[in-house]
Amino acid sequence: VVFQVEGRYEEYCQKMEDLISSFELIAGEGAAKCYTALALQAMSRHFCSLRDAIVTQIKLARKKLSPELPKIGTGLSQLSLFDREGQHCTNRMALQQIGLIQGAQRQVWRPIRGLPETSVAILRAWLFEHFLHP
């Protein structure tokens, strides 16, 4: 579901870029900025809120299932999958609102790269058990 939301956000950004370019052809360079800035900011906030709500639901479902999951033994299983994503999105938007960060709204919705935290936690635990404490 998160990937679908991100895909829709990308579609929205593409359509806004098309709209801006067609508006600027008629009205001139930079003319669309004052009209589209608030719309981009509001929609980015809505998509971010929707994504945070989905992540919260995933966390709750994960928390309910966590007693059923096997324990790793080193305490690394307590790492959360999405702890920093929601905070990053909220912090970035707050900084953009007060004007400390400027730039494309797309950076808020950059796809997550790398392995999920749970995979990293399992790998760390295995490496710790087999190489540091054989």
From TrEMBL:
One of its GO terms (molecular function) is DNA binding. The keyword Lyase does not apply. Keywords: DNA-binding, Homeobox, Nucleus, Transcription. The keyword DNA-binding applies. Coiled coil: none annotated. Residues 4-55 form the POX domain. It comes from the Eukaryota. This is POX domain-containing protein. It comes from Opuntia streptacantha (Prickly pear cactus).
